[in-house]
């Protein structure tokens, strides 16, 4: 079964509102262009367009929400397999018919399937709340994310240099 | 343009290894089943199967990585639109031909497109690193995620009660 619960994180178009182009700036602006525009509040952070009244954090949190539902389903499925094979079969059968892309939609459908399924849904809600608050290592997420970005940047630049430097090949 | 850079977060199958079913447990186990199995290390956390040697945090971090690339592209695009319309057109044209699903693949292709595009790619790498480390509000992500899970749970249960309680309707 395939799921894609966080697909929407970047399903945003690149349409941007037209800014004032009358001013001339260097081709690489400093990171705080807002400070040059008196109508905008001073902010140390880079301007991220396209999120309206939401924020990148809100967008990411919504996708983490679907991720936590997915994790909760995995946890409950594994528990059921050991302790209640009948309930495990019920849940697996339901999973084969319903997508986990939208965690809340999945839970709402599970609650309405039958009284037995409703028990499973309540368990999933309980587990995702507990997992999000107690088990998920948020500090670790930040640390791993920063590491992955740094390592990826180095790898991309190194690969490019190796690929575009014939001298490096001949020196071997 | 549509992108789905974090699609892979939950593209995992629900295949689970078969555990020992000889023991009998209550249908709802306590949250630390591992402590009853002497071959496993004691752990306060719920067991999340299916991540092999990785972890949910690692999986989430990989998807945050693609999200940060997406954010960086948005930031750079907005900056270019104000300061360098030619570079903006270059980037938008490239975006129309390449998917942002895999951020690193996108950057690698952008670097190799032309020397001008390489400059854009380097800028995107720089911005995603800076954004991830300095601008993104990690504490806010955790706070929002917990809030969304709690509110969603309450809403799902309330909707179910309202829907399945005809008495509530007649009392109005």
TrEMBL record, chains A, B:
GO biological process: carbon fixation; photosynthesis; ribulose bisphosphate carboxylase complex assembly
Coiled-coil intervals: none
Keyword Chaperone attached: yes
Keyword flag Chaperone: yes
Organism this protein belongs to: Salix purpurea (Purple osier willow)
Entry-linked InterPro entries: Chaperonin_RbcX_sf, Chaperonin_RcbX
Name this polypeptide is given: Chaperonin-like RBCX protein 1, chloroplastic
Name of one Pfam family that matches: RbcX
């Amino acid at each position: 079964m395939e799921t894609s619960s966080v697909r929407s994180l970047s399903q945003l178009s690149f349409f941007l509102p037209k800014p004032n182009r009358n001013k001339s700036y260097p081709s690489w602006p400093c990171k705080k262009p807002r400070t040059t525009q008196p109508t905008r509040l001073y902010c140390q952070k880079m301007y991220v367009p396209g999120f309206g009244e939401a924020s990148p954090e809100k967008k990411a949190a919504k996708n983490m929400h679907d991720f936590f539902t997915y994790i909760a389903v995995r946890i409950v499925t594994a528990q059921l397999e050991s302790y209640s094979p009948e309930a495990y079969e019920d849940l697996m059968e339901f999973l084969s018919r319903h997508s986990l892309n939208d965690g809340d939609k999945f839970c709402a459908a599970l609650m309405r399937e039958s009284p037995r399924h409703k028990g499973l849904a309540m368990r999933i809600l309980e587990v995702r709340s507990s997992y999000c608050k107690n088990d998920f290592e948020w500090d670790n997420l930040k640390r791993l994310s920063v590491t992955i970005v740094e390592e990826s940047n180095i790898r991309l630049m190194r690969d490019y240099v190796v690929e575009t430097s014939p001298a490096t090949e001949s020196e071997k």
